[in-house]
Amino acid sequence: MNIAIDGPAGAGKSTVAQKVAGQLEYVYIDTGAMYRALAWAAHHHQLSISDESSVSELLQKSKIQLVRENGQQHVYWNEIDVTSWIRSTEVSQYASIVASYGSVREQMLVLQRRLATQGNVVMDGRDIGTHVLPDADVKIFLTASIQERAERRWKELLAKGTQADLADLEKEIEERDRRDMQREVAPLRQAEDAVLVDTTGMTIDQVVDRILQICERTGESTH
């Protein structure tokens, strides 16, 4: 069974998807991390983020790997572990830009579908249920209010010792939503057959339980 989890920035997709995959003993594929790795690499190589052909060419010549180590997913760019470098606010903004490029998404689509062919995967992103895995057995659309998503991000940064302004984070999330929903290629939207789960006011464990219930029901109905 393949599970697609989509939703806007800060809805808790990665955390929830990892936990769901762990409970089901499935493989977790974080597509957002793949775009973040590319964004980090483009910045690292001092490419202009607004130059689509350079960014696309960089991806073509490089290798992205998602590796599970000690229960955590690590992201490798050309054998370099970039996991701890791709979660900054700056990289988040760049990732949203490179993810809007059609040539980049086409390459990522091939990589992501190849990863899913092994079956029993939980994949999260913005366009998994609508574009990457349109035939996924379970499709979830996770969301939460902008205020809640900004607060979660603020707490996350604070825990890492990074100071951030809550109002600025709300603006950034609003901007990312606009960019993700308005991009020409595979924009962020809920698949018609996806189950909407609003996580506002819910704990991570409550969200995970809700998704596992949906998976259980789907599994029963397909037997």
Word description of this protein:
The protein contains 9 helices and 8 strands. The protein has helices spanning 13-24, 31-44, 52-60, 89-98, 102-116, 128-132, 146-159, 166-182, 204-222; strands spanning 3-6, 27-30, 64-69, 72-77, 80-81, 121-125, 138-143, 195-198. The protein has a 5-stranded parallel β-sheet, with helices on both faces. Strand 3 (64-69) and strand 4 form a beta hairpin. The model has no long low-confidence stretch (mean pLDDT 92). Residues 3-216 form the Cytidylate kinase domain. It is found in: Cytoplasm.
Short description:
The chain has 223 residues and is α/β, with parallel strands linked by helices. The protein has helices spanning 13-24, 31-44, 52-60, 89-98, 102-116, 128-132, 146-159, 166-182, 204-222; strands at 3-6, 27-30, 64-69, 72-77, 80-81, 121-125, 138-143, 195-198. Helix 7 crosses helix 8 (166-182).
